[in-house]
Amino acid sequence: MVLLEGKLFTRPLMEKLKGRTKRIAGLAVSVAKPSPPEGFSPSGQCPNDGFGVYSSSEFAHCKVVQWNPLGNGLAYEDFSFPIFLLEDENETNVIKQCYRDHNLGRNGSAPAFPLCAMQLFSHMHAVTSTVTCMRRSSIQSTFSINPEIVCDPLSDYNVWSMLKPINTSGTLEPDDKVVVAATRLDSRSFFWNVAPGAESAVASFVTQLAAAEALQKIPSVATLPHNVMFVFFQGETFDYIGSSRMVYDMEKGKFPVKLENIHSFVELGQVALRTSQDLWMHTDPMSQKNDSIKNQVEQLLTTLETVGAGVPAVVLQRPRQSQPLPPSSLQRFLRAQNISGVVLTDHSAAFQNRYYQSIYDTAENINVSYPPHLSPEEDLDFVTDTAQALADVATVLARALYRLAGGIASVDSIRADPKTVNRLLFGFLVKANNSWFQSLIRQDLKPYLGGGPLQHYIAVSSPTNTTYVVQYALANLTGTVIDLTQEQCQDPSKVPNENKDLYEYSWVQGPLNSNGTSRLPHCVRSTARLVRALSPAFELRQWSSTEYSTWTESRWKDIRARIFLVASKELEFITLMVGFGILIFSLIATYCINAKANVLFLTPREPGAVSY
Amino acid sequence: MTAAVFFGCAFIAFGPALALYIFTIATEPLRIIFLIAGAFFWLVSLLISSLVWFMAETITGHRGGRVQEYVLVFGVLVSVIIQEAFRFAYYKLLKRANEGLKAINPDDAAPSLRLLAYVSGLGFGIMSGVFSFVNTLSDSLGPGTVGIHGDSPQFFLNSGCVLPLQTLVSPHYGVNLALAYAVLVLMGVWAFFVAGGSGRTLKLCLLCQDKDFLLFSQRSR
């Protein structure tokens, strides 16, 4: 068993450990505090390669731009021993103390028994690949009364909402055009269910939430020529699960918006680490070979630049010509249809994020920190610089979406609220169980807020904490409070003016009343909804598909670890032999004594049997 | 793995008792019944003494430290007194039962009081042993051994040989161990003499002169 310091957890060392599989039984890694200065990213150097739009062109496999040069690909390697993460300092110290007490030999000799030992339980039921485990699971569920499923596909829900409500029971007319604003919700790391994802996911969707709030506040929203759709894709880390599913649904007509309704597409990539206020606009060179698309993209970029001129804190830049798109959901849409789209990021070529999809991509990575003397409630109102910077990006996005949707009035009044951005960042990155999040959600979802920050891994049971909180935050920021009772809110079909096809109604906890004793729940009407994000490969049962994501997660029984002392084999053998010896000796002795009992033990003569 | 330790300790602790059971008790059904009844009486005595201790604990209000120690000592004393009382009660019960058995079965030889004493004593002893040791035994099944907080690694071996577990608590366990072994030996010798043996009979038996002895005692009739 190896206990590894965080800063030694690098690819060359792991290669060495992997090479000697017989001797390494397990690995426990302690988190490096502070984060390794040279960066650490277990993701690949070309994330989501092969599932974007450049699979077979001159831009394939990151030949032109390597997006994640610090990536060491550890997360995609197969290790035959369990690897655990020790986040708690105290646990690491207990293990180190046990080692120092028992496993160090004195004066250079080998240590004597009993020795300190560690056991890591992490048995995984699935083996080889998705194809094998899905095949086994399907055989089980077809033929067995008590099926033993060994793996589950990664799936969850995308969150989406419309600026103007649409009828979700049908599809839009082909003339109704929609401007799509997209971003991703999830991240990952090397270890299961640890995914702080501050720069890779949280900052982007928080910015989009703020932009949605700013747009909804405009009074003339109902008169805009085009509609605006805000969508938050789940599962983009694992070969675009959410966006590939949405494109598939759009093609099959199962989603109210279809591909031909898309007017333009604005995506937020990683935006929190802007250097010198630059915000880069990436476009796809291949689709622009078509002239009409090229013109539309040019219009899109000029709109953005015009709007950006009104926000001095954000400088919009274009990267050099013929650079491909970074890994983004727009690539999946371009696979299906040529649309004009742009991806806004803080990097022109390689990522600024040195901890892309790792355990170190935390609030610290994007400089979100609060003065220690403030209480958590005061932190909610303390606007950090990062929050201000993201609010500026949100302002640019909101204004650009307004213009793209055909709005002609002045955009100066459209501003994203830095306080909202800060509250969202605090909740998602530092402490989810705060008073604002508590007031947003339904009562039965309280346990989803957990202890510290939220983890943004997609997981297999849905919806996850992040999905729910984002949906309810979106509902709170873009919806309206209406005066319905709880029964009416949960079933609005009976209420005359309310329409379940147009809107989503949720009965939320509400804020604490003035005494602080109970809550004031109310009904929120919004267009924020969930739509299934399961890779089409599992719908079509094509488990070896290279077209769609086929990621699955194995099932397991329990995951735990323990340390204890082991005695030498000699001592155990001696104990067993002594036991056998005593048993045999006592059997013999008892037999002999029993046979000679009337000799050995004189009974006192009964009165009456007198010897003469 | 430490199934070895488990079996070794189980045999050390319960080997003699098992041997006694196989050769002396298992042959006659009546003796088995008396053995199990004896074990049950011991359990009841333990239950009552634990109730007394629990009440004492509740009355003193779970205060820690010295008060807890005194309550524990009080509990142990009470437990010993109650155990002896139950032994006496069982003896009385057996005497009554003996007459009843004689009435039902006048032909079969009734078991002598000495035999009953032996059987009931064995029952008490087995139950007491099981209760003290089974907890340690079940822990020994896991892959580890004691010592992570500074205890001795020969814990299992010794606790098997000496059922009382005061070695765990006392820091001077070496002295305690020797004392416990000495008490064990003394008890064994005393039991032998109480059961009717003597130095003479032992010598006769060991030197295999018993046949002459029997003939001798018969001739004197």
Protein model, in words:
The complex is a heterodimer of chains A (612) and B (221). Chain A has 612 residues and is of the alpha/beta class. In chain A, 31% of the residues lie in helices and 15% in strands. An eight-stranded mixed β-sheet of chain A has the order 11-10-12-9-7-8-6-16. Chain A has a three-stranded parallel β-sheet with strand order 1-2-3. In chain A, strand 10, helix 6 and strand 11 (315-317) form a beta-alpha-beta unit. In chain A, helix 4 (198-216) packs across helix 9 (385-404), helix 4 runs parallel beside helix 12 (465-478) and helix 5 (241-252) runs parallel beside helix 7 (330-336). Chain A is elongated, with a radius of gyration of 31 Å. The termini of chain A are far apart. Residues 606-612 of chain A have low confidence and may be disordered. By secondary structure, chain B is mainly α. Helix content of chain B is 78%, strand content 0%. Chain B contains nine helices and no strands. In chain B, helix 1 (3-25) packs antiparallel against helix 4 (113-139). Chain B is globular, with a radius of gyration of 22 Å. Mean pLDDT of chain B is 72; it is low at 162-174 and 216-221. Chain A binds chain B through residues 98, 102, 113-114, 116-117, 119, 563-567, 571-580, 582-583, 585-587, 589-591, 594, 596, 599-604, 611-612, and chain B through 1-2, 4-5, 7-12, 15-16, 18-20, 22-24, 112, 114, 142-148, 153-154, 156-157, 160, 195-198, 201-202, 204-205, 210, 213-214, 220-221.
What's the β-strand tally of chain B?
Answer: 0
Question: What is the count of DSSP helices of chain A, taking H or I runs of 4+ residues?
Answer: 16
User: Ends of chain B: how far apart?
Assistant: 61 Å
Q: What's the main sheet of chain B like?
A: none
Main traits of this protein?
heterodimer, A: 612 residues, alpha/beta, three-stranded parallel sheet, 16 helices, disordered C terminus, B: 221 residues, mainly alpha, 9 helices, 0% strand, Gamma-secretase subunit APH-1B (chain B)
